[in-house]
Amino acid sequence: MAIPEPILIPTEKGLQLADDSLEALIRKYFEPLVYFTVQGGVDIMAGEDVVIQIITKIWNVRDSLHFRSPDGLRAYLFQATRNRMLDHIASVKREKARRHAWAIQSSEYEEGISDPRLRTALGMTTAMEMVMKAIEGLPERQKQVAKLRMAGLTTEEISRRLDISPKTVRSHLSAGIESLKEQFKDHQPVVHAMIVLSYFETLKFVNHFPHL
Q1: In terms of domains, do 125 and 194 share one?
Q2: SS3 14
Q3: What is the number of structural domains in the chain?
Q4: CB-based contact 63:16 (threshold 8 Å)
Q5: CA 206 to CA 212: how far, in whole Å?
Q6: The domain spanning residue 31 has which CATH number?
């Protein structure tokens, strides 16, 4: 077995991250990994966030990770960063498309509203803004899941991001929409429908395609 780096210690199963090696791990790999994400097309702040997530996740499960050599650790870090970077890029693209579609839909709704009472109910607040405000009042886990879903992440991506099962993700999503329906039940029917729709549109495939 090759002589381990200071951040790695030999065990019966191979090299493992030492319990006091977090600082050394960050010093050695943080900047190269961030540079890797920037080269992949991610802005530097998002790249730093990606790398922090990866290092944190690996550190939290370090006792279950074993490597044949220091190069194995390096390869693992770069592959994990690449996967998370691609998830981020895909999420950004989906969010831009969602915002564009919502802007068009919102404009069409406002142009089609002729009832003065309905205009007063809506005011300058869009349905999406009302939903996002309501989401802030959800239980913490439901709020996290809802925000990620609204950002365009799939059930599997949310599962990986929060380290929970896809089934649990779907459970939080369902509970979230039921809570929103309850919160907005006293609104005028059309307003209620618009508010719930703005959230439900991101969830409607869950029941039909639970593998997403």
Answers
A1: yes
A2: strand
A3: 2
A4: yes
A5: 7
A6: 1.10.1740
Q: Which residues pair with 192 in a beta bridge?
A: none
Mean pLDDT over 104-129 rounds to 50
Report yes or no on 108 lying in a domain: no
Across the range 92-104, mean pLDDT stands at 71
Q: What pLDDT score was predicted for residue 166?
A: 86
Q: How far apart are CA 4 and CA 106, in angstroms?
A: 58
The Cα-based distances of 85 to 166, 172, 209 in angstroms read: 21, 25, 25
Whether 76 has a pLDDT exceeding 80, the answer reads yes
Find where tokens 């929409």 sit. Answer: 177
Q: Region 12-16: what's the mean pLDDT?
A: 91
Residue 101 in any domain: the answer is no
pTM of the predicted model as reported, rounded to 2 decimal places: 0.48
**Could you tell me the residue range of the domain that residue 51 belongs to?**
8-88
Exposed/middle/buried for residue 191 (C-beta within 10 Å: 0-12, 13-18, 19+)? middle
Element (H, E) at 109: helix 70-112
pLDDT reported for residue 123: 43
Per-residue pLDDT tens digits for 34-52: 999 999 888 888 888 889 8
d(CA 27, CA 30): 6
Burial class (CB in 10 A: 0-12, 13-18, 19+), 86: middle
First and final CA of the chain: distance in angstroms? 42
For residue 113, pLDDT beyond 60:
no
**172 and 128 co-located in one domain:** yes
